[in-house]
User: Fold Arginine biosynthesis bifunctional protein ArgJ from Streptococcus chenjunshii.
Amino acid sequence: MEFFQGNIASPLGFSADGLHAGFKKRKMDFGWVVSEVPASVAGVYTTNKVVAPPLIVTRSAIETHREMQAVVVNSGVANSCTGSQGMADAYRMQKQTAEKLKIAPHLVGIASTGVIGDLLPMDKLEKGLEKLVVNGNADDFAKAILTTDTVTKTVAVKDMFGSDEVTMAGVAKGSGMIHPNMATMLAFITCDANISSQTLQLALSQNVETTFNQITIDGDTSTNDMVLVLANGCSGSQEILPGTTAFDQFSDMLSAVMTDLAKKIAKDGEGATKLIEVQVRNAPDSQTARMLAKSVVGSSLVKTAVFGEDPNWGRILAAVGYAGADAAVDKVTISLGHIPVLVDSNPAAFDDEEMQDIMQEDELNITVDLHDGSSHGTAWGCDLSYDYVKINALYRT
Amino acid sequence: MEFFQGNIASPLGFSADGLHAGFKKRKMDFGWVVSEVPASVAGVYTTNKVVAPPLIVTRSAIETHREMQAVVVNSGVANSCTGSQGMADAYRMQKQTAEKLKIAPHLVGIASTGVIGDLLPMDKLEKGLEKLVVNGNADDFAKAILTTDTVTKTVAVKDMFGSDEVTMAGVAKGSGMIHPNMATMLAFITCDANISSQTLQLALSQNVETTFNQITIDGDTSTNDMVLVLANGCSGSQEILPGTTAFDQFSDMLSAVMTDLAKKIAKDGEGATKLIEVQVRNAPDSQTARMLAKSVVGSSLVKTAVFGEDPNWGRILAAVGYAGADAAVDKVTISLGHIPVLVDSNPAAFDDEEMQDIMQEDELNITVDLHDGSSHGTAWGCDLSYDYVKINALYRT
Assistant:
């Protein structure tokens, strides 16, 4: 598997475009991804009980027809908590995109992100649709889906399946409201492999728990967010079937793309100055390991300590303690970078200058070894800074 | 029941004192509460799996002997994650206090709060003990237990039980690490009622869920925190027995004291500029109502919006949605103060100026009516400000 400088349109048969339609003041806010042919599709969605109209429309299309040819996305207005008018607008967004592309409405997925409670300005959407082109600028799509993100998030990989080259690419937006249980962001993944929707869903579902579900920014879960994977078969590769080596290879590829996007989302959390990676080692089982890792990376006290470059391992241990996991906490070893600060639950002396170097880096690796099993789990997050408060106190106004 | 300007020494037979022993640089950091006679005692403790030595020592004394005559507290150093030396120090703290007061060690409860991982400086503790007096300054005790709190938290009430006057008082510290499941703060309540330890525990346990367990500052739960109630019978009142009107009256009194302290803790959360009270109304059951109220008041996005004085009800509804409760979310009415902003899950127009007045007040009342049952629940918290980040990024250094 090889990572390369590509974009969401790198897999064969895909194109994308993005532009400014006026949902936001100045920045790009509208775009689409289009496949030359209907593609297999898989999705995971927010677990929030309040679900926005675009998500309802897209999920319903996928569950009913299991194929998709285009995804159209706007940022700036989430079309969430907008009642029956919001549902009507979401269906119109799907239908008008389908008309423009001359395909069936069920082949169009839609997504919206931004302010909750405002109706989608349909006139802006229509004018935007007039300007979107097939074979446009795929980098503009990556820009158009952002909200408070500071950078675009794109990844591309390719790999040989026997003599067939398969390419996969992903693009995501994240920033705030990123937390547990999936679908708390927008991510779109394209691939030119030949794989059925059912098999694709299997691969997506088995990788969500260890990737997107393991990032947290602020513990809030959005009403809108989803991950869609489209595979159009344009590579001409052999069909990837469950239970084969090719499937495992495909799943690894998807895992790599999802992990990369998850880390990029965590690193660009609202106001973040640092990426935090927490590895929990030697836990009774993987689920416990992941849960503990996420408890540590989600602790406001750990996050502020990391922002302050303070090696406050007490807060890390406290977050392990209150996670509610069924694991021993009396022989815990905690390391910051390569430096142990707690060994078998006893404080360990360390060199202050060496520690300072580690705390000042852009990425902090926290390792928690429970010595209570042999399973591991990782979670990603970011520090909690003044800017997080600033961004969220002033988001609407 | 009458609230009055009293302190922890107002109930008959209690005294308290506080002073600067040197655990902190300048502020008071050491104190005790003493009863003339052994008192009935009840306690609730942190649910963190990592439990600090002082808590282990105190809980064990209470569970074994069910009576207590003094509680000694230091702030600045938590004596948490301090291994076997920490346990030995905690037992010494208990024993030396008992020697000074010439009572049995099991009659002494101990509590520590502050930095995790540092050993208790026993020389300072011993010198502090030499200076503490019985019948000292009870207001100094309220100061001595604080960490990042900005104000002392004290409450006193009295009520007639037949012809007997009973007085109850409480003092608490809170600020950071205040969250779910009890005991995530220090609170000490004294009372001169005549009540057994078992009956006192019953009254404490039945009021914890709706008071201290319903406040949240940052979602973190401490390793040290506990609530202790001492009742010494010095009022000469008749014994309060379970299942009687007197018990209900006593329970209401305790509830009033605990609610008052809980709200004071929430209002003085680290960096807080506003108290937030969330009432969930007409839920399927009380537990669901409380859980939803706490989800809203604990949402970082709601908290930052309140700090920014932004009536962002979308984040409130989102927090209702992701709480994981089994309740309908399709006919929700949300009000900020007296102004409805969402009615039956449809956005409601409101007057911007009137709303601005509400958002600028020191206390914000958020009401969420589910129209899905007849049970209610309340939770308290505070906004998330720049100062929360500042306090926690720089706490150790």
Observations:
- The domain at 275-393 of chain B is CATH 3.10.20.340 (Ubiquitin-like (UB roll)).
- Residues 177-184 of chain B have pLDDT under 50 and may be disordered.
- Chain B touches chain A through 61 residues (CB under 8 Å).
- Chain B has two domains: 2-266, 275-393.
